[in-house]
Amino acid sequence: MDRKKLKTYRDRLAEERSALLGVVGRNEDYGREADTEATQDPADKASNSYTKELLFSQSTNDRIILTQIEEALQRIEDEEFGVCVNCGNEIQPKRLEALPWVRYCITCQDLLERGLLNEEE
């Protein structure tokens, strides 16, 4: 892959990382605020609990994507970006444009989703 494309992907990944770090931080702050509210109304407590659980779930998903972004940035540094971590085949450019942090080619991703590929963590 040429340097210009790699720079474009690196810049996009860095932007995504910054945006997600902001979202995760705001969700954590909001979750802490929900903990400190001392309400006696059971409906308010249930609403706060639901909101906190939803934010926790979103935060978990965002953290997974952040990890994948960090790994993609490392693959750029290691000159392994754009190559499937399982089979070593090139990842299609349209797939990288849609999700530049992907680890697998479409074939290996399909195998992973069907439970036929052991993912190394």
Explain what you see.
With 121 residues, the protein is an all-alpha fold. The protein folds into two domains: 1-81, Four Helix Bundle (Hemerythrin (Met), subunit A); 82-121, no CATH class. It is 69% helix and 0% strand. The protein has four helices and no strands. The chain has helices spanning 3-36, 42-77, 93-98, 106-113. Helix 1 (3-36) packs antiparallel against helix 2 (42-77). The mean pLDDT is 86.
Helices, strands, pairings?
Elements: H1 3-36, H2 42-77, H3 93-98, H4 106-113
Helix pairs in contact: 1-2
Strand content: under 5%
Q: Give the % helix.
A: 55-70%
Low-confidence stretches: none
The CATH class name of the largest domain reads: Mainly Alpha
Give the tally of β-strands.
0
Shape: elongated
Please, what is the CATH homologous superfamily of the largest domain? DksA, coiled-coil domain
Computed over alpha carbons, the radius of gyration is 19 Å
Number of helices, where a helix is a run of at least 4 consecutive DSSP H or I residues:
4
Task: Report, as a whole number of angstroms, the end-to-end distance.
Answer: 26 Å
